Amino acid sequence: MVNLVFLGPPGAGKGTYAKELVKKLNIPHISTGDMFRETAASGTELGNKIKEIMERGDLVPDELVNQMVKERLKRDDCSSGFILDGYPRTVEQAKALDEMLKELGRELTWAIFFDVPEEVVVRRLTNRRICPKCGRIYNLLTMPPKEDNLCDVCKVPLVQREDDREEVVRRRYRVYMEKTFPVVEYYGKTGKLQKLDGTVGLERVIEEVLKLVK
Ligand code: ADP
Ligand code: ZN
């Protein structure tokens, strides 16, 4: 069983690494960002509220996030482990996760921190484009689609996430430094932290993670 938490600034590549690793480790990828994007698209009152928060680059309230993750971790597919991507994002959430794991009789394997400097983050995110149909992620600089602005698979025009505009990216980075970097320090104290360089490219990052969990 492998229970992982992925930490790092927005744009560190957590989602991309997680998607690669689920294939190799056969454990679910739990992205709170994806879950909230789904809720935001649902058109419900809660959805609209969350949409507003996300478009500002702010954080969804801890209680709501904790409840959602708690439900998710109870599902059968997590019995072999999980990759938590984008959670915990505050020390409050980290403590809540400790409680959840205790209740489930589980232990965190590692909290992996993907270290990436702010300027790299801004460059990556403002160049990120997404296929609205299949969710594939492209980067205009490092992973461009084969045809101009069209998904390689679906051939539909790629879109930019509202929160990937530069001013929102800068704000997300500030929120990250203020609220989430303390989570890195939190895991540092528990001896569960592993720091990896998030700028060395997908393949090498995956190799390093696999070394840690095997
Ligand atoms: P990023 O690319 O910034 O890592 P995500 O896709 O993980 O973005 O999350 C997008 C947005 O969803 C965040 O900016 C935040 O508003 C909300 N969100 C996701 N996870 C959490 C969380 N654990 N706590 C609070 N808000 C969250
Ligand atoms: Zn597509």
Average pLDDT, rounded to a whole number, is 95
Question: Under CATH, the topology is which?
Answer: Rossmann fold
Domain module tally: 1
Please give the number of β-strands. Answer: 7
Largest sheet: 5 strands, parallel
Give helix and strand order, one letter per element, not per position: EHEHHHEHEHEEHEH
Q: pLDDT under 50 segments (min length 5)?
A: none
The class by helix and strand makeup works out as alpha/beta
Shape: globular
**The CATH architecture:** 3-Layer(aba) Sandwich
List the total number of helices: 8
Relative helix content:
40-55%
Bound molecules: adenosine-5'-diphosphate, zinc ion
> Strand order, biggest sheet?
2-3-1-4-7
CATH class, named Alpha Beta
Tell me the layout of helices and strands:
Elements: E1 2-7, H1 14-25, E2 29-31, H2 32-41, H3 45-56, H4 62-73, E3 81-85, H5 91-104, E4 110-115, H6 118-126, E5 128-130, E6 137-139, H7 166-190, E7 193-197, H8 202-213
Parallel strand pairs: 1-3, 1-4, 2-3, 4-7
Antiparallel strand pairs: 5-6
Bound molecules: adenosine-5'-diphosphate and zinc ion.
